Known about the structure:
It is a single chain. By secondary structure, the protein is of the alpha/beta class. It has 16 helices and 23 strands. The protein has helices spanning 34-38, 41-47, 82-94, 113-120, 186-202, 248-251, 257-269, 287-294, 327-340, 359-362, 371-383, 413-424, 429-439, 476-479, 486-499, 501-505, and strands at 15-18, 51-54, 58-59, 71-75, 98-103, 132-133, 160-163, 168-171, 206-209, 277-281, 303-305, 314-315, 318-322, 348-349, 388-392, 507-511, 518-525, 528-535, 541-542, 555-559, 563-564, 570-572, 577-583. Strands 11-10-9-5-2-1-15-14 form an 8-stranded parallel sheet. A 5-stranded antiparallel sheet has the order 16-17-18-23-20. β10, α8 and β11 (303-305) form a beta-alpha-beta unit. α5 (186-202) runs parallel beside α7, α11 (371-383) runs parallel beside α15 (486-499) and α12 (413-424) packs antiparallel against α13 (429-439). It is globular. Residues 1-5 have low confidence and may be disordered. Bound molecules: 1-deoxynojirimycin. 1-deoxynojirimycin binds at residues 64, 67, 104, 174, 210-211, 281, 354-355.
Amino acid sequence: MPADLAHDWWKSAVVYQIYPRSFADSDGDGVGDILGIRQRLDHLERLGVDVVWLSPVYRSPMADNGYDISDYCDVDPLFGTLADLDGLIGDLHERGMKLVMDLVVNHTSSAHAWFQESRSSRDNPRRDWYWWRPARPGHRGGEPGAEPTNWGSAFSEPAWTWDPDTEEYYLHLFDAGQPELNWENPDVREAVYSMMRWWLDRGVDGFRMDVINLISKVVTDQPPGLADGEVGGADGGPIDTMRYGDPGPYVLNGPRVHEYLQEMHREVFAGRPAGLLTVGETPATSIEQARLYTDPQRGEVDMVFQFEHVDLDSGPGGKWDVVPMTVRDLKETMGRWQTGLADVGWNSLYLGNHDQPRCVSRYGDDSPEHRAASAKALATVLHLHRGTPYVYQGDELGMTNAPFASLDDLRDIESLNAHRSMLARGLTHEEAMAAILTKARDHARTPMQWDAGEHAGFTTGTPWLAVNPNHQEVNAAAQVDDPESVFCHYRQLIALRHEEPAVVHGDFTMLLPEHEQVYAFVRRLDDTEVLVLANLSSREVVDPGDLGHGWDDAELVVGTAGRTDSQGRRILGAWESGVLRRRG
Ligand code: NOJ
């Protein structure tokens, strides 16, 4: 065992993400809350996860469901009270689990006191805590085209909003209700660090850092100090680069981001006992960048969420330009990250979260015939990679995308704005809806399916977003005691990580990289070898190819690994998956 194992405890851990709005509602208002979570902790303990990552529960006007925070040190009444949160921390610790909070400090809400002060006058001491700029020379503020730069925001609007009172624009890379903090200002940084220390002192076990690779911007000598972005280029992300300039090169992984994270590490984490976890959300980040973020010697974060595999179905026009992806693409990407972070750094492993469609609908087959098997196959592959797996609530049940019928069924600001933007660009309503119904974040946000009853046991009231009608078949109550269920499969995979060091520390070798259906690899540590074999397709595979010798007598530890036909060939059924182990 490495001597510094205590600091690496998260290598053998599995994290479960709770999106509180949609997890469990204790008071019947149709929105999940902290007491609801506390009532459902048996589910998590049974699953065997080590850590809960809680999406934001702070005070917020909810322009972006809590990713717009107006008070970092209080809980929004929609979710409960600070005392409820203290109770949750205590409950989790009692059960041997940890709590990681969402840290959203690239931006605040426009309702945050800091921004209220900042916008109150041009000479307010907090003016410089945000990015304020005059209108473009020769233009009248507030008119289209007068924005200081041509940047688009991730929510399909210009990235600048005019403030008529102080006659300047402020920058927001998301909604106008999410102004960007100016990390160039050391007082901003100290205010953030002090808030983080406050939470750690309160007992939380770390942070998931929202779009943390956006905190440093490229500042130029020429007014306005920020440069126009390319229009019409390929962004790959959510920016509508047909209508706006792409801010990416000026805001992603900017010149001071590593300096800031190292400072944060020194100011917040250094000297605290081991047992904390930090994970940065880092869209559009390369392996080279990820190595810098996650090299323990540099003191930045423990791991990052990279985006390459969730961008595989985005075409040159970005997120809403949906293109097909293949099993080969997925293997190529995931395999490259395994190799890229093999000697330095660490991977976070995820196929879904509150920003992505459901993984079983996207990478699997959510038809009744294949849903469960494909959910298991995807989990098998993901959890056996080297890295820390993240389970998004409901994925352990094989929850699917929702059958949204129209825009009225959706709630997410990203989808609603994207629809308007696509129409403005000349797409038909049908074309816009086809993209939105494929990628909408609301697919992942439908309420957790606890049972087959009304509203899936999520609430006694009217849920804020409709429950998926398939909760009558797909729900926790039907699965937790069924050894063949998706839930029990997840439980086995999580237990395997806890007990088998080769899954945690073993090296990784991809097999059959060119195969169009099979995802196979070997993990190896000392004398233990683990073979992972999955047919990621709805068609049978006859003889997947050379898996190396000697696996016929290996121990089957999870799932099934095919059958042998009369000619001695291995046959893998549709979405069949399994894990084999041998020693010596
Ligand atoms: C990433 C979060 O995961 C997403 O939900 C949010 O909309 C943006 N960051 C802005 O905070």
